[in-house]
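Late entry, written up from scratch paper. The run itself happened at the end of the previous shift, but nothing got recorded in the book at the time, so transcribing now.
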Amino acid sequence: DVQLVESGGGLVQPGGSLTLSCVASGFDFSTHWMYWVRQAPGQEIEAVAYISSGGDVTYYPDSFRGRFTISQDTSKNNLYLEMSGLDVSDTAVYYCGAGRYCSLSYITIWGQGTQVTVS
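Output as recorded:
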């Protein structure tokens, strides 16, 4: 089955750090752009970070650059998101996604999400 499974969410204090993981299976991880996105209660889905299929290009919206780091281990089909300097406003469900092209609109595979609560 094609799936993405996130883990690593939890409760963290403001200013703290957390690392999320996402394990991919059932598709060719190395040919897909991988994404972390999040959705806070009552808010739209928001891009957090992208990484290219080759791992050589990463993208962060301004609000996350310098605080969050996306990485991947293609040998294990794992995607990671290291988060630091967390703020209450970072509370959200974080999802990993996969798509063949660089845009949220091309995400075709979604994980179930992992809750991050900063309090």
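The mean pLDDT is 95.
(Scratch paper discarded after transcription.)
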